Amino acid sequence: MCAQTISHIKTVFSFVGENSAMKSFIECMDKQYKLGKKEAITKGLGLGMLQIATFCSYSLTIYIGALAVTRRSCDVTPADIFICNFRYLSNAAPDLQTFSQAKAAGKEVFKVIKRKPAINYESNGRILEKVTGHIEIREVDFTYPSRKDKLILQGFTLVIPAGKVVALVGSSGCGKSTVISLVQRFYD
Hints:
Elements: H1 2-7, H2 9-14, H3 18-70, H4 78-90, H5 93-114, E1 135-143, E2 151-160, H6 176-183
Antiparallel strand pairs: 1-2
Subcellular location: Membrane
Domain ABC transmembrane type-1: 1-86
GO molecular function, one term: ABC-type oligopeptide transporter activity
């Protein structure tokens, strides 16, 4: 459901379906939460026991090492200490990278979640009695928000009568997709 919504995000935006998509997502996540709760407890207990065993063995090793050093039966140099500590610190590096990637991905997702449509499509809006399907675009000048210096459409006019099939044909970059996006009101 998420992959489908994200891959068709322009369509979701054009029909102002963010709230509906969010509601479906929340319902889906509630089901997953209930199913995963028991599994998470089991895995958490298992991992916790494993961590207890690991850290108890570390503690025992450190205790025995400390006894050996205090009895002067073993010499420890600063290099030995550095190597041991560096090994433990290097174990955290993959987790830091994963955290950084998740933070970057989350930032983009939250942009979409927090986006407010320029047009308010409340359900209590005006209901049209008759929709004919007639599309008319008059004297449109358009630049993409990211490239204000490059004019994509200049004085563009298009009339498509209801019931007619029209093909937009042209070279790459001439504005075919832009016209469709404007009809969908993606750039309002």
